Amino acid sequence: MLAKLFNSRTKNVASAAGLLGISALISRFLGLIRDRLLAGTFGAGEELDIYFAAFRIPDFVYGILIMGGVAAVFLPVFSEYFRKSEEDAWKFTNNLLNCFLILLVLLCAVLALLTPWLISLIAPGFSPAAKELTVALTRIMFISPILFGISSVFSGVLHYFDRFFAYSLAPVVYNLGIIFGILFLVPSFGLYGLAYGVILGAGLHWLFQIPAARNSGYKYLPLFNFRNFGLVKIFKLMVPRTIGAAAYHINLIVITAIASTLSAGSIAIFNLANNLQYFPVGLIGVSFSVAAFPALARSLAADLKEEFSKVFSSTFRQIIFSVVPVSILIFILRAQIVRIVLGTGQFGWLETRLTAASLALFSLGIFAAALVPFLARVFYSFQDTKTPLAVSLISMVLNVGLCFLFVFLLGFNNLFQGFIANALKLQGIGDIGVIGLPLALSVSGIVQFFLLLFFLRKKEFDFNGGEIIHSLKRVLLAGLLMAAAAYLCLFLTAEFLDTKTFAGILIQTTVACLAAGLAYFSAGAWLKSPEIGIIRSALAAKFKKR
């Protein structure tokens, strides 16, 4: 029964998307549990700063060579081979697997030797002892991109054969591996236990895909040909993708370096708040953009400009309709969210206030972070990869400059520092420089969004701009009514609930979210927002199929 489930194939795109959506939701919830355990075990202090700093270089390798590289370009090339010859396709897969593995091992070995120098750049504010421990953890975690590199090839195979069940489990077991490390390895090995948990999770990410890949026809062959045409093609296709992916990771490296010079716990506070804000970005922005991309590409390929405009307008409006209320709620309920997810054990009230303030500033740019992946794929539909790359590089430079500027301005008493401290209720905290980092990321993300929109207007297609603006007006008005409902619930529930307890804060947040959601959808229906009709139609279609 279990083997049958692992080797099952999805019947259509909708069922695959549904399976991946459920998997993403489970994985992200496990990510919240992981962060809660990290916060409760270590608090936002030097130890968690070391852990997140040690992640940066291995994550950089993973982000640019694997997620931004092989994982993105393997499937089209494999498909090309498989249509011509099944035997050649498997030879190509094994050759890629072996050659890529050798390159990853060599790269990680060289980086491991350079780690002391790299950590001095990434965490210049660390003490010598903290740097030494960060170096040790980084070297251990270099095993993870090697395992992910192997896993990415198996993932591409499973995509081709529609075996999404096994693939969908991979990110789930990765988080379970880290959680296992926190619960069972940290008590014996300390911070090293976290690194071992990361390796365990990466290993499970690969191992869980092997049975389904073998069932698809894969058999290992010791092939090594660096001149193979398919391998050369893969590496050529990877180049622009890796440059684009590098911009995001360089941003995180610079932010980590700046945060290391601030008070202890700043790196942890930034990363924990960033993980919280990425929850809706991943579920809404990335999901919609991935789902819309095939329809956009097909309509342009067939020169159906009107159909392209319809898909663009509908997807853009649905993302706005979904993400704006979430952003508003995150801003209003920021303290409650941080207390529910992270407020346990060693995670104190000072850390809670700073993380909540960081989350509030992140919420200002969530709409942009959710729409940028969609707009980038619109450019890809036009076979234009240069514009998104150029805009991402401009955004990266702007973010770096703003990080230094905002941290500097928040470092002493001035009008800007006073305004931010009063607005986010941070009075009495000596060092609030860390909140300059999410503010910079939000501002640069908003600029990136508007730049993409500006250059997209130069493309020859109808935006349906009037339609989008009308929808945006309705969303903002419904959002204001939703915000009023949320604030009213917070005020009323505070009168009879003990909000100093986990149960009290959970009930308060749940009631506020339910009331806010009811107000938003009621206002949307009253304002005749077309997105509600789209949601109803999608749900009706789902139920009819069942």
Describe this structure in words.
The protein has 546 residues and is an all-alpha fold. It has a domain at 1-10 and 31-249. The chain is built from 21 helices and no strands. It has helices at residues 2-6, 13-42, 46-84, 86-122, 128-141, 143-160, 164-189, 191-207, 210-215, 229-260, 266-301, 305-332, 334-341, 349-363, 366-381, 386-409, 415-423, 436-456, 465-493, 502-526, 530-545. Helix 11 runs parallel beside helix 14. The longest helix is centred in the first third of the chain and has 39 residues, at 46-84. The protein starts with a helix and ends with a helix. The mean pLDDT is 89.
Short description:
With 546 residues, this protein is mostly helical. The chain has a domain at 1-10 and 31-249.
